[in-house]
Amino acid sequence: MLRERTQKQLKEVLAAGAVGTQQNRSERDSFAGMYAARLARLWAVERGLVFGRLDHTEEGRLYIGKLGLSDDEQDRLLIDWRAPVAQPFYRATPTAPMGVTRRRHLQTRGREVIGVDDDLLDLDGLSDDDRATLNGEAALLAALDEKRTGRMRDIVATIQSEQDRVIRADLNGVLVVQGGPGTGKTVVALHRAAYLLYTHRERLERRGVLILGPGLTFLRYIEQVLPSLGETDVMLSTVGELYPGVSATRRDRPEVAAIKGDVRMVEVIARAVRDRQRVPRQPIELPLGRQRLTIDRSMMENAKNKAARSRRSHNQARSVFVRSLLNALARQLAKKLGKGLIDDDELADLREELRTEPVVKSALNRLWPYLTPQRLLIGLYGSPERLDYAAGNLSREERALLLRTSTEWTEADVPLLDEAAELLGDIDEQVLRATAMQAEEELAAARAAEEREKESELAYAREVLELTGLSDIMDAERLAERQRGDQPYLTTAERAAADRTWAFGHVIVDEAQELSPMAWRAVMRRCPTRSMTIVGDIAQTGSSAGARSWGQALDPYVAGRWREETLTINYRTPVELMELAQRVLASIDPALQAPTSVRESGAVPWAAPLDRLPELVLRETEHGGRVAVLGPDVLLDKLADQIGGVTGRGVLEASVAVLGVAEAKGLEFDSVIVAEPAMILEQSPRGASDLYVALTRATQRLGVVHDMELPESLGGLAGS
Ligand SMILES: Nc1ncnc2c1ncn2[C@@H]1O[C@H](COP(=O)(O)OP(=O)(O)OP(=O)(O)O)[C@@H](O)[C@H]1O
């Protein structure tokens, strides 16, 4: 009914057509956007729309659902799970019943109720030991035992009390959610996003919510959770995609990523920009017809100082630099022409004349080029001289690791591009177009000159063209669209994604332990209000530039002002598997404690020789559900060949997937086989954390296959 009404409203709005004034059009677009979003909500929540009932002593009976519904008389039919009155559904216990006498979990399939599970909360003397930690055990255990589908699902029906506290925590300030594997950090963070959007709808819809995850596979794994809760306008991204126009999925070798993520790169980038403003030792001679002008060092220094005093970014300060130099050149020219003192008007005339002279333009571009962050970094990585100048605070070996010629961006480059963008500032679109055109002209002129062996000018013109290439910043289509001014309806998330300087209303960072100090800087820039939820597990840090403690990561920004909640119960991994993982955890640090598992699977982890892998994979698939083989990166292709498993893009859909540990981070499978654990240990300085991650990905069964000797922490495993 509701859905039909919304669909009709949407149709009417769209039928109004594309005619009309600019204002009409944009009103129409925003109504259409509103109805489309509402419709998406109603469609998405079909599954398990109603899942709970509270019998209150005072307020009577309340039904809890994924969204709130009222009938035409405004009587509440269904309470949104995020509303304050729904809170007892997650928090009430026999000792603190919050006025509720009975909590009922309804399990539904389509429109049919297929099971109920009651918690009686008001019975005096009821032993509450069993119920103290878990709410609605039967519904929870049924949910946990289900076969996995390759996509994360919402847990509104079975949120546990410690999770509810995180979900409903205050919007303001930085909240860290620390929890071991399987404690629900990801799923809780997503429900928190939905809760915050519901509770602070106006503020957050305008500024948007950003959720950062560790990789594109992971984002695909979680992307359906928020829509299933009726929330569609949230931006999901990786750090590698945070910079508009760049989509970095490649990873650097650990030793290179460690340098690029190091906070010393702040100084390196700043010096790389200053390198492009350096005054050459020799004066520059400018042949102008029969005259010959000279740009000497003092003119250049003077112009540079003026630009510096303007305190503008590099690209914005260029006009100050250029004006100062042109004024000095104009005076020089006046003198050569035999004119004495000239007035302001004459100076302006001469200056504008000089501005259009190719030799002058080309000298100015060399002295203070327009720069995009991409060109700055390519220039830096590609030149040992530039690296020596900019990266004097790194060792010679570290500089050598940064040197490269490839222009394919890696994840660790993105925070550096962002850093550079801050210092370089925008290039005006108009200037950009004019400079690109001018560069084209210069290139054409230089081509003609090439015959006259003016090699250097050609090289320079090429550089200018490259430096100002429009494609770096916007493609032709987008530019044309902007000029026509007919932007299609864009959601907040879409507008935010295209704008590097967008300030989000709330930012959620998942697997946050992996972020480098440079990545934290880029993330913090997107959230000046510091309203953030940071979820992760320090014990799982695999990245060489990742965090060793939350304090180390956050204190530079919010020292003493962040709060921490801990999740302690593992909902994913059965007890039998966790015993093994705990041994690996203790090998990292004996003081570390893995979270407590809520259930047993009865399946004991096993070990077998590597060459039995195909047969063992087959056996696992017979249980139904999804199987993953997790191994060291160098073995992945071989393993996939051996068993016909899927790697890369299709891993979430595959019944047998083959993945490296970094890619498997945050994911889960019914059955996991870890290949060559000793090699996983060796492949990076944080190998033990990687092994811990690999061993905690299964919801049911776990095995290990190996040729190399098993690490000590895995000793004593039963044969398969
Ligand atoms: N209250 C709950 N009800 C039902 N399922 C739950 C609940 N809490 C967590 N789960 C399930 O437990 C599994 C693990 O959750 P999640 O992936 O969010 O954990 P995590 O802490 O992010 O793990 P990791 O650090 O290993 O990535 C998921 O399948 C999730 O749906």
Automatic annotation (TrEMBL):
Coiled coil regions in record: 429-456
Residue sites binding ATP per the record: 179-186
Protein name according to UniProt: DNA helicase IV
Domain of life the protein comes from: Bacteria
InterPro entries, per database record: DNA_helicase_UvrD/REP, P-loop_NTPase, UvrD-like_ATP-bd
Nucleotide-binding in keyword set: yes
GO BP terms: recombinational repair
A GO CC annotation given for this chain: cytosol
Keywords per UniProt: ATP-binding, Coiled coil, Helicase, Hydrolase, Nucleotide-binding
A GO term, aspect molecular function: DNA binding
The UvrD-like helicase ATP-binding domain, residue ranges: 158-574
Organism: Nonomuraea dietziae
Gene3D superfamilies for this protein: P-loop containing nucleotide triphosphate hydrolases
